[in-house]
Amino acid sequence: MTWLANIGSVSFLLGALVSGLAALWIARSGAAERSDRWAAVAALALTANWCFAAASFGAEQPIVALTEVAKNLAWIYVLLRLFANDGRDETLRLVRPAAIVLALVESFQIVLVMLALRNANAPGAATLIFETSAILRALTVVGALVLLHNLYVGAALSSRRILRWNAAALAGMWAFSLNFYTLSYLTGEIPVELQAIRGLAAAIIAVPFAVGFNSNAAGLEFRPSRTLTFRSLSLLVIGAYFILMLLLANSLDMLRGDIRALTQVGLILAAGALALIWLPSQRVRGWLRVTAVKHLFKHRYDYRNEWIRFTNTIGRSGFDETTLQERAIKALADITDSPCGLLLLPEDDGALALGAQWNWPTADLPSSAMNSDLAAILEREALIIDFDEVRAGKEHHGELAHMPDWPFEELRVWAAVPLLHFDRLVGVVILARPAIERELDWEDFDLLGIVGRQLASYLAEQSGQAALSEASRFDEFNRRMAFVMHDIKNLSSQMSLLLRNAEKHADKPEFRKDMLVTLKNSADKLNLLLARLGRYGTGAREEMQHFDLAEISREVAARFEGSHPVRLARCEAVEVVGDREGLEQALVHLVQNAIDASEADIPVMIETFSNGISGQCQVIDNGKGMSPAFVRNGLFKPFVSSKEGGFGIGAYEAREIIRAMDGRLDVESREGLGTRFAVSLPLRSAKAIYSGPKDLIEETV
């Protein structure tokens, strides 16, 4: 059949050309991050080599058989490398033995080729070798299909979208081979019609396989079924295939000559015609897709598996040293296959600041990540923000006017999910864009919304437990301070009595004078401390007065002279209103913390100036710095300290003292760079204007 031989030669030449070009394209333009890239290049190159050898020498020659063995081994190795593409897929430890067995079975074909050459003149031996080769090849192909099935079923959703083109190409290649070798075994001879189009099949398969290495190929619509449905359908298809092949084999046995060949070609053409009708027709494909979704599964998410994974993530603690905030981010990120995320928590003024991060150490957010107006919209409307819609200018509840700038600059920011507990906003989770581009749909919004409420309850419960623990420790602290106050009061009384006796009985005037000065100063200090301790917890406020903020800064800097360099980088006279002594105590706390975080010879800087609204006193160091999580969750928490042996109450007391003066204490810190504490107090002039004309007149008088 000369015309079939000519078709076969052209077919194999086309297969060699297309496979070679596909290998070259993957090598030059394929996704560089794919670990199976060069394995695919080698497999396509060996396929091109096999096609070229078949076109040159004829498909039945031993040299061609050996090149086919090399090609098949390369494709088995590609399958093995596909398992290593995603950490969420089945582990190589379980797959590698099966792949090795398939490679050994395929390698046995070399022995069969040698035996065929040696027994070329023995018809019985040649038939046995042919049938053995066909059945071993069929078994190898079945094993490869089983591994390919397990690869796709065990892959994460994002990995399925990456692997689908490669998996489809490999499935087509091995399905054609299974058909070829099954017919060869059942009929006892090579089906020449299928042999003639093997090169064409290789060319057709090489194209989608190469497309799979394009980074944009995963963006097309593709919705795989659930695991159980997928496996059930696979078993049904495999069973139906073998039944059909048995029926065809029995039918072909009743045919002879050209009729049998025509039947074989007709089956191939019928399958191709069905594919050509189905693939281009969007209406047919849409109908099939809708029908499958309607009858095979109700929703895209497997809610049972999602809830089990969510519960395991939130309930896990201890061994990985992750906080509840980090686990909350991960629980939401796993739903959408987001690689990382952030948690924003509300500040005292209603704005949202960074509270925790998961797998996103490079996130650089301002101190106020979202203002109070945007937080109020999220709380009132339970709005899940799709930042792709925001960047496109689409809004739902007027949120665009309050949107910060950083989501427009950081394109990885994908969605914001509010965490609501009894309609109160306890946080917002920022999700990064998943590896596979897709849009949020109604099912995402529903699932993220309900999971966000569940997470909010966990965070609120943890906050309540922390508040109870803090109150308990404060109660113990107050009880201890009561004893301290009692002892100080007794000491003060004793020293006062000693002072009165010394005034009456001292003989030496100079000694008496020195003793009186010393005792009087000690008694005054103790009485002052006693008065201050007595006011803790009563809600009483110190009497406000106006003073120069620069003068306080100079006194604090002088206080540390000789122990650590403290420099006044900027010292402008600023009249503020507050408690002078309390402010000095707060600044001493802040400067001491800065000194503890700095090297011995690195100075701590103090800047004092006015911004027109308030007086500013900033304490700046170039020390170790603090993480955003510690600034948020530990810095101003009583009894929490980053210093060994620290009591953990200095920063908290400094903030409370400044707040009592209607002031504000802000902090900015970066690990390894340093920390800036900024104290803001109302200006004397601004305070008088705010208080009204009456107070202004009284202050002037």
Account of the 3D structure:
Its EC number is 2.7.13.3. The protein is elongated. It folds into four domains: 1-215, Rhopdopsin 7-helix transmembrane proteins (Up-down Bundle); 230-298, no CATH class; 311-467, GAF domain (Beta-Lactamase, 2-Layer Sandwich), CATH 3.30.450; 545-689, Heat Shock Protein 90 (2-Layer Sandwich). It has 701 residues and is an alpha+beta fold. It has helices at residues 2-29, 37-57, 62-83, 92-118, 123-154, 157-187, 192-196, 198-211, 227-253, 257-278, 282-296, 303-315, 324-336, 372-381, 387-391, 406-409, 442-505, 509-535, 549-559, 580-597, 628-633, 650-660, 684-691, 693-700, and strands spanning 341-346, 352-358, 385-386, 413-421, 424-432, 545-548, 566-571, 575-578, 604-610, 614-621, 664-670, 674-682. The chain has 24 helices and twelve strands. The longest helix is centred in the C-terminal third of the chain and has 64 residues, at 442-505. Residues 218-226, 228-232, 282-297 and 693-701 have low confidence and may be disordered.
